[in-house]
Structures are given as structure tokens and as C-alpha cells.
Design goal:
466 residues, alpha+beta, Neutral Protease, domain 2, 26% helix, 5-stranded antiparallel sheet, 2 domains, binds zinc ion, Immunoglobulin-like
Length: 466
């Protein structure tokens, strides 16, 4: 998510504190909730997700009418249960659930808050398939910092934006970043509009006055990075060549009212090339952008095809594309490690700026260190916030990037770039934690680095002596 734009919405913080977002509930305690006996995944959003099973694939079939914002949907979810489950839950807020099948047999279900609690006709173990038929008008979701996500209405359709929890407004899912899956989106809408989603466009089928767009996201993806955008778009198709020699197809969608000049579309290729040299091969099978008139006040790194509101600034482009390595391919397992996404993407902006005549990362660091006495940067520390309102606070971005600069100064540029490249390679398409980054950094550099990371990420005060 782009900080420069997102921070504009921080002024709205506190307007709407969404229930159940308090981070202090330990995972072990959350596990005892209700009679499901299934531990949850995340410390910041313990009510989201279900650790009792692992989703392998979402087959999402949507019928959408932009005129009414009505959705008619069937999502088929292939999962694997870690042990026998008599009930399990999916996250789904709003909408009307019409049917739930488990392995083809009707299951009983109930709605409880944003949970769809499913009781199969017989307990599931090992692989099982859940099919949810649902319909209605999806809703937007207001975050603790006052910003909007979920199924966001635009002037000519809608776009799904899911960070951190908004996927539940349109996709019944195991809505926690630690459960990645592949996706197929089959979206049918009037032929007068276009449909973008994650991954590769497999086919477009016209029938009557409608067209079905089939997108395949073959690389694992967390729910918060899934998107579907429906509306009137100019569609740009091109490709670029990876440093591996592989051709990366590019699909970009821009609302006709948006500013997406050729230079910006070429800029995407320049940014991918620049970041591949620093971070290693581009991790996905396609690239692109979605520029839409959803005025949410932030850009978002929706996988393979980031979303930009209205227009695309260069540093925002650099930021969201960097997330394809750090955030999308290597994804935090727990939201308290969000700095692994935002600190790296901010550092990528610093690297790009230095290459193009702006400040060096060391100068960025010095500026922030000298001129930011306010608590926003120092308390809470990047991994120590307890309110989801601080999930996108400046500590996560700026102190996160400062942590990387301190690491670079400690181990030297040579080892630093070996570390961040190895990090992208070692956890490609997976989930990872700060502890694993510390271990990797120590292994590559041969130095003890736990105190450095601890000081910069976990201590609620300005680190001394830098
Ligand atoms: Zn970001």
C-alpha cells in the first residue's frame, strides 16, 4: 500500500473503530472461542481466518451488474484439513448465502458476524471441497484508520480492494495472509464494460449481451491481494522480458478519465527492470496496473496488477511494484510483520530516487532521524502497535526502511543486497517472519544482528547513537 497517499487518510483515524480488531488477544486464547476448537491465524485480527485447514484453490464465479451493483456468485474452495473438522468457518461479511455444499453434499451453515460457519454432513479430513452460492449487493468495509476497502463502488462499476480484511465483503475465504492459494476468476458482466483481475487473462467469451472474462492467478496469493475490477477501461496489452529471458505479459486497465500516458506504461517496464537487478527475477507470470476512479486515498499492491487511484506517480509505481517481491511473493504470516512489506517497498523508493538524482538512502535516514522527534515514528515501534489503526503508521514504512539502512551500514552494501535478494528467493510465493529475516541476515553476513533488529523494530523509543 502506498504510504504517501495512505497517510492523507490518516487524519480520518479514529472515526470508525471496527469491532474485534484489538490485537492483544493471544492466539492460544482465541483458539478456545466457541466450540469449533480451531485455532486462528493472526495476532492483530484473531477473528479472521481459520488455521484448521489450508486453502489450495479458489474458483470464483461472479456475475455482476454495474448498473445495480448486484453480485451473483459461486465460489468453490479446495482445501486440506489439518485434522478432522466437524465444523469450520469462512470469512464472509454481508450478502446472502443461498447454498453451501461440502464435497458435493448439502451442508448446514449459519452466519455469525463475518463468519460463515459450515457443518458438513460428515466431518472432513484431508482434502475437501466447499462450494458457496451467494448473492446480493456487496459492501464497503471501513478500517480502524477510517479508510475504505472491500467491494468499492466506482462511477461505472466496482473494484475489490482487500488490505487488510476487505476480501470478506465479496469472497468467502480463509481471510488471513498466512493461507495462500491459487485462483481462477470467471466474471460475467455486460459486454459494454471490461473486467480486470489478478494473473493471466486466459479467455474472453462473448454470449448474448454479456462477456465472461477468465483470469488465472497460478501463483499462490493471499486473500488481501486478490482483486476484481469491473467498469469501463482502456485496456493496454504489451510485454516485457525478465532478466531470466522469460516473457512477462502485461495487461493494464485504465479508466478513461485517468491519466495513463505511454510514458507511465513504459515506466512500468523500467521499474521492473530496475527492481529485478536489485531483488532478483520478477516473481509472477504477468504484470500490469489498474487505474480506476475509486477515491479511497491509497494505492494497493494487488498481486501482479496493482491498483492506483486516478493517476500513477513514479514513486508510487516503484513502491507497488517492489511489493510484488516483498509483500506479495514473500508475504508476512502475521500482520505485526507488515514492515516486511512496507519497509522494503519504502526502501525501494529510496533506491530508485538515489539512482535518479534524489537523496541517497543514507540521506533519507539522516533526515528522518534528525527531524522526526514526534512519537509517530518512534512509539509504537514497527512491530509493537496494538491497534489496527497503526497498521499503516509511519513507523511501519519509515522506521521499517530505516531498519534496512541500518542493516546495510552494519553488513556493507555487498552483503545487504545479497540478503534482500536471498530473502526474495528463499521465501518466493511463501510466508515469512522477521525472525527468519534475522536468521538469514546473520547467516549471510556472519554477524550477530538480533540486537540491531530488536532495537529498530521492537523498542518503543528513538534508537540512540545513530
Ligand atoms: Zn505499500
Amino acid at each position: 500500500m502506498s504510504k504517501s497517499i495512505r497517510s492523507a487518510t490518516a487524519a480520518l483515524a479514529g472515526l470508525a473503530l471496527v469491532g474485534g480488531l484489538v490485537a492483544s488477544t493471544p492466539v492460544a486464547t482465541a483458539a478456545g472461542a466457541a466450540d469449533r476448537g480451531v485455532p486462528r491465524g493472526d495476532t492483530l485480527f484473531p477473528a479472521q481466518g481459520n488455521a484448521g485447514y489450508d486453502v489450495r484453490h479458489y474458483g470464483v464465479v461472479l456475475g455482476y451488474d454495474p448498473a445495480t451493483n448486484h453480485l451473483d456468485a459461486t465460489t468453490t474452495i479446495r482445501s486440506r484439513a489439518h485434522r478432522e473438522l466437524r465444523t469450520f468457518h469462512l470469512d464472509l461479511s454481508g450478502l446472502t448465502v443461498d447454498t453451501v455444499l461440502v464435497d458435493g453434499r448439502a451442508a448446514t451453515f449459519e452466519r455469525s458476524g463475518h463468519e460463515l460457519v459450515v457443518s458438513p454432513a460428515k466431518p472432513v479430513r484431508g482434502g475437501f471441497t466447499t462450494t458457496v452460492g451467494y448473492s446480493g449487493t456487496p459492501s464497503e468495509h471501513t478500517d480502524a484508520d477510517g479508510s475504505t476497502e472491500g467491494w468499492v463502488r466506482t462511477t461505472d462499476g466496482a473494484i475489490a480492494l482487500g488490505e487488510p480484511v476487505g476480501a470478506m465483503t465479496w469472497l468467502p475465504s480463509n481471510n488471513t495472509p498466512g493461507d495462500k492459494a491459487t485462483y481462477t476468476f470467471r466474471v460475467t458482466a455486460p459486454s459494454t464494460v471490461q473486467v480486470a483481475a489478478n494473473g493471466n487473462l486466459a479467455k474472453k467469451i462473448a454470449h448474448g449481451t454479456d462477456t465472461t472474462w477468465v483470469w488465472q492467478a497460478r501463483d499462490p496469493m493471499s486473500t488481501y491481494l486478490a482483486t476484481v475490477a469491473i467498469g469501463t477501461f482502456d485496456v493496454y496489452r504489451s510485454s516485457t522480458t525478465s532478466i531470466t529471458g522469460r516473457t512477462i505479459p502485461i495487461w493494464s486497465f485504465a479508466d478513461p478519465s485517468a491519466d495513463l500516458p505511454q510514458a507511465t506504461r513504459d515506466g512500468l517496464k523500467d521499474v521492473i527492470r530496475f527492481e529485478e537487478k536489485l531483488f532478483g527475477p520478477y516473481p509472477f507470470t504477468s504484470a500490469g496496473m489498474i487505474v480506476d476512479n475509486a477515491h479511497v486515498g491509497y494505492a494497493l499492491e494487488t498481486q501482479t496488477r496493482p491498483f492506483y487511484p486516478g493517476g500513477v506517480g513514479t514513486s508510487t509505481l516503484v513502491h507497488e511494484v517492489a511489493h510484488q517481491w516483498y509483500g506479495d511473493s514473500v508475504t508476512l504470516r502475521d500482520w505485526h510483520d507488515i514492515w516486511l512489506a512496507e519497509g522494503f517497498a519504502t526502501y525501494a523508493e529510496w533506491l530508485w530516487g538515489a539512482r535518479h538524482g534524489d537523496q541517497t538512502p543514507a540521506e533519507h535516514f539522516d533526515d528522518l532521524y534528525r527531524t522526526r522527534p514526534d512519537n509517530g515514528l518512534w512509539d509504537p515501534a514497527p512491530r509493537k502497535f496494538i491497534d489496527s489503526e497503526d497498521l499503516f503508521g509511519s513507523a511501519v514504512y519509515d522506521r521499517g526502511a530505516m531498519t534496512l539502512q541500518v542493516l546495510r551500514e552494519r553488513v556493507g552494501s555487498h552483503d545487504f543486497f545479497r540478503i534482500i535478494k536471498a530473502w526474495a528467493a528463499a521465501h518466493r510465493h511463501g510466508n515469512a517472519s522477521t525472525r527468519q529475516l534475522v536468521a538469514l541476515s546473520e547467516r549471510i553476513s556472519g554477524r550477530e544482528l538480533s540486537p540491531l533488529f530488536h532495537t529498530w523494530l521492537d523498542v518503543d523509543e528513538k534508537p540512540a547513537g545513530y
